[in-house]
Amino acid sequence: MSTTEIRFSGFGGQGIIRCALITGKALSLYDNKFATMTQSFGPEARGSACSAQVVVSDERVLYPYITRPGVLMALSQEAYDKYWGELPDGGILITDEDLVKMGSDHPNLAVRRVPATRFAESLGNRLFTNLVALGFFTAVTGVATADAMKKALPGLVPGRFLKINIKAFEKGYEHGVQCMAGSAP
Amino acid sequence: MNIVTADPKGVDAGPHFMDGDHAIAEGALAAGCRFFAGYPITPSTETAERFAERAPEVGALFIQMEDEIASIAALIGGAWGGQKVMTVTSGPGFSLMMENIGLAVMTETPMVIANVQRGGPSTGLPTLTAQQDMLQVRFGSHGDYNIIALSPDSPQECFDLTIEAFNLSEFYRVPVFIMTDETVGHMHEKVVIPPADQIKVVERNLYKGPKEDFRPYGFDSQGGHPMTRAGDGYRFHITGLTHNERGYPVMTPEQNQIVLTHLIEKINGNADKIIRLEEDQVEGAEVVVLSYGITSRIAVRAVQEARKKGLKVGSLRLITVWPFCEQRIRDLSQKVKAIVVPEINYGQMVREVERSAAGRCQVVSVNHCGGAVHDPLVILKAIEEACR
Questions:
Q1: What ipTM was reported for this prediction?
Q2: Which residues contact B98 (CB under 8 A, 6 or more apart)?
Q3: How far is A25 from chain B (nearest CA, A)?
Q4: Which CATH number fits the domain that encloses residue A125?
Q5: Which CATH number is B140's domain given?
Q6: Among A49, A136, B105, B109, which is disulfide-ready with A114 (CB 3.0 to 4.6 Å)?
C-alpha cells in the first residue's frame, strides 16, 4: 500500500484549505485514489497560520492525520518555520520563493520554490496564488494528475473565475515542469 | 413498516468530496426530511448551512430559531404537522435541548438530532473534537426513558446513518441521535450518494381508519404506531403529562407504569433489530478494542501494530451506541482476557462495558479529555499491558 501525507500551509486567506480540498477531490473522484482531508479549524484558520492535511492512499485511509508528511507546501514564513522540521529526509518542500526565506538549503530535502504570488499578480490578482502553487505542486510531486486537478475545480472556485484559475494552475504547472527539467530560472 | 424509495428531489446522487456535516444534511434530505429548525453552533453549523442552501430547491423549510430549546419545540410541531424533521447542534446547544427532548420522547415524536461533539463542559473547546456527550444523550433529560443513538466514523457513514436514523425514528417514534464529532464533521472524504431508487426510506405511518377510532398512542412495547397530522380533522391530544392512548392526561402510578414500560421496552425489546456493530477478528482474540466514531479509526492503527507484534487483538466498533450491545459484551467477556475502551472523554461508554462484562474480564479505559484524538501508541500500550 502506498500512502502519501501532504501538508498545505500558509496564512488564512491564501486559499490553503482550498488547495487541500481541490487536491482531495481530484484524487478521490478523478484519480481513483482514497483521500482524507482535515484542516486546522480554530481561531488560527482565520488570519494567522493555517494548515490543511491530505492523506492519500491506494486503500481506504483509516488514520486521518499526518504523522510523516511526504510533501509540505509552505506559502508563508510562519508556516515554513513551524512545519519544515517535520519533513523526513527526502521529503518535498514547496515554498513561495518571494515570501519564504529559508533558514538553510535543506540538502536532505527536495526543495522546490515557486514565485506563486508574483505569478498570480502577473495574472491580475494575488488571489490566484493558491492555484499557481497547486499547479506547481502537481508538476513537482506527481501525487495527482493535472487533468484530475483541473476537473476538480468547478464547484470549488467561483464559476466566473474558473478560466483564470485554470490559467493560474497551468502557469504554476509549466513552471514546475521546467523546474523538474532543470531549466527554471 | 411502510418502506418506499427516496424522493429523487432530495437526492443529490453521485460522488462528492464532502465533509461529515454536509453529508448529514444530504442524508436528511435523501431520507425525506423537509423541516429543519436550529440554532448555529460550532462545529455543527455546516449542516444547517447546507440544509438551508438546499431547502428551496428541494421544497423543504429551514428556520433559524431563537435558541436550541425552541428548535426542538419547533421540531415537535413540525413532526405532528406531518414532516420528517431534524436539527443539529453541539455541547452547549445539546444541553439546552434536553428539556424538550424529554417532551419528544414522552409524546413519541419522531425526529433526528445530530450532535457534532466538541470539548466541554460548558463552552469548553468550541473548535476541537470530543466524545463527551455519550451519556448525556442517553440520560440527559429528566425521568426514565430510552433513545437510539448512532455514531458514524466517516462522512460516508454520516450520510448513510442519517438515513438510517430517520428510518428508525419513524418506526419507533423516538428521537434518534447522530453522535458524531468535530473531526468526522469537518473531515472531507469521498461520499457516494446513490440514486434515489436505491435508497430505502421508512414513510410516516399515517392513520387511515375511521376518525373516531384514532389513537395517537399504543402501549405495547412495539414500534409502528400510526400518527396523524394536526389539522386533518382527527381529535387527539399531545402532552408531556402521563397520558392514555388518546393522549389525555391520566396521572396515576398505574398509567405511568404502562407508559414508561412502553417507552423503554419498545427500544430494549427490539435491541437485536436495532443494534449494528462492526467486528474484526474478534473470534479467537485475547483482547478486544471497543470504540466508536473517530476513535475507532485511531484505534485501528494501534490494533494493526499490536497484530504485527503477534498479539491476538480484535476490534469491535459500535455503529449503534444506544441501545448498548449488552448481550454481545456479556458473551465476549466470557471469552476474552480484556476489553480495551478508548474514548475521547474521561470514561463514559466504558461504564456500560464494565456493567455488561460484570467482572468476567478485565475492562480497561483509555481516556482522553478532548481537543484531539488519541495517540495510537497510548492505545497500543494499553493493549500490550492487557495481553500480559
A1: 0.94
A2: B136, B140, B141
A3: 5
A4: 3.40.920.10
A5: 3.40.50.970
A6: A136
